[in-house]
Prior knowledge:
The protein is an all-alpha fold. The chain is 62% helix and 0% strand.
Amino acid sequence: METRQTTKALIGTYIRSRRIARGMTQKELALAARITARWLSAVERGRAKRLTLDHLDRIFDALGVQIEDWFDPTPTSRTRPD
């Protein structure tokens, strides 16, 4: 459960920083992403329940971010060589 909370917090922090960088309010982003400002606030605080890829896709699209770009495709130290 700790990893899940950490991931939600990381995603929320990223969304908030991108929103601020674009000069958008939570209300503006929520409207563009077709979600409520209250729910967006919960996402940004890492407290949203049932955060789906569809939600992330809509939020990232409204921010002008490709969801695929958010994920680092490079191997990590946890990956064993063949």
